[in-house]
Amino acid sequence: MNYDKNLAEIRTMIARHRRWDRLFLITGIVALMIAMLVFLALIIGMVIDGAPRLAMDFFTSFPSRRPEAAGILSAWVGTTLVMLVTAVAAVPLGISAGVYLEEYAPKNLLTEIIEINVTNLAGVPSIIYGLLALGLFVYQLGLGQSILAAGLTLALLILPVVIVATREAIRSIPVSIREGAYAMGATKWQTVSDHILPYSSAGILTGIIIGLARAIGETAPIITIGALTFIAFLPESPIQSEFPFLSFEWLMAPFTVMPIQMFNWVSRPEEAFQLNAAAAGLVLVVMTLAMNGLAIYLRYNLRKKIKW
Amino acid sequence: MLVSESMVFFEHVSLREFLTDTQWTPLFDDAHYGILPLVSGTIVSSVVALAVALPFGTIIAIYLSEFAPFTVREIAKPFLELLGGIPTVVYGYFALLFVTPMLQFFFPGLPGFSLLSAGLVMGVMIIPYVSSMTEDAMRSVPMHLREGSYATGATRFQTAIKVVVPASLSGIAAAYILGISRAVGETMVVAIAAGMQPNLTWNPAEPAATITTYIVQVSLGDLPHGSIGYQTIFAAGLTLLLITLIFNILGHLLRKYYREVY
Predict the structure, then answer these.
(1) What b-and-e string marks burial along A268-305, b requiring 16 or more CB atoms within 10 Å of the CB?
(2) What ipTM did this prediction achieve?
(3) Quick check: A290 contacting B, CB < 8 Å?
(4) B49 and chain A: CB distance < 8 Å anywhere?
(5) Residue A169: which residues within 8 A CB-CB, separation 6 or more?
(6) Verdict on whether the full-model pTM lies above 0.80
(7) What digits encode the pLDDT tens for the residues A205-236?
(8) What is the CB neighbour count within 10 angstroms for residue A60?
(9) Could you tell me the CA-to-CA distances from A160 to A83, A115, B187 in Å, in that order?
(10) Residues of A with CB below 8 A from B181's CB?
């Protein structure tokens, strides 16, 4: 008798729990759908507004006061040059810091401080990097509002990303590889350069690409150091036709980058400029997504090729 | 660097005035230097953003880690990574040109610049960070805890909220703190969609400026080095840095003391 009553209660309880379970399943799917919907709305909206503007002359004209004639030439050239500086600065520094922290650093207080600093750096809002760069690079070091300053600022910004990626990649190498190298009598540097670095290059490369993808879209720090928004000329080309065939003038030139150009266009009230902004945004998003996609693809493929 | 420049600022403006004056108009002739309007803008926009990001992010994370079949997870994870990789200016553009008109359709009378649309889009932007960190935290909970729970007849939902979430609380707290830092420090979305007018208000349906958008606004103009206007952005930046640091330390402490080791 008692069992019957309890059984009915238990059945209702189970049914109720099942109901909640299914409800949450639906909620989860709906939440995911909403996120996807927002993403699609963003992309499709930009394509509708911006794709008509994506003709060849968009990429090869300078911005101008007339929206139909405006283009992103100075912007994407600026982005490319700044990325060059960023990569050259961040990659060697980040990889060496990562290798040092993983392989060479002793476990003392100094190392802990360095590690804490790296983690904190990753959490600082990007605009504060801009302020730091303004005070330090632009004024103190006298670099002016130049491509060099911007590149260095962005390098600082993505340095934690590169360092962490390097450390993670190195950490995933089995200890036996290292032990095998030491057993053959290799020095530390030989182990690192011949064994550790080649195996971790996939992870490091992925980290670098993700860092650069992030740096491309960063607007705030570059605005802070004074990138101008209306540039109608290009910096001097690094390849000159006279001796010495390489010139470094371009490092110190004023410039603009793509996100800033888009920001500038979005802030204008004329509708035609909004279309331009959409087109610029489309280019930016395509670049970013392509780089992220490349990183994901590389990470997937190179991981398969590793033979321990 | 922030501290040294701010020191000069504080020689001109007393600390008390900085903290309590309710207007922030350092570039006008009648200069006021209270930072409250900027802080209120930051707080309101962050609260709106987090009200979107934290629930969505957590729900998506729980769904992905406990409920979703393998293929769904493999599609959703890269997708969320891509969502988090979109440059913030693009989100700002989206907020201004799509979200605001849509909101105006529902709430006529909403001004063209508002913290609400900026906050909503910022929330969507932070969802990937929250959800991926939460999901990683939940995935590191060992299977045998879940298996024990299922063995006693619990549903997936019950297991998720009664076993897995409490076990991964430190990771989830870290994810929330990361989201908060991101929301507080975000610049471009708010700069584009919320206007740049410092305004002491707690109402999200009004235009306002945050600490970050003020810095952008000043940098867009021309400022002589060493002037008081120049120093204001450093003072504002110092405030922002302190807020962020406090949250980071909080996160670090939370992780250390609540971490469960298996």
Answers:
(1) eeeeebbbbbbbbbbbbbebbeebbbebbeebeeeeee
(2) 0.75
(3) no
(4) no
(5) A200, A201, A202, A203, A204, A207
(6) no
(7) 888 888 888 888 887 787 777 655 555 455 55
(8) 11
(9) 17, 10, 20
(10) 123, 125
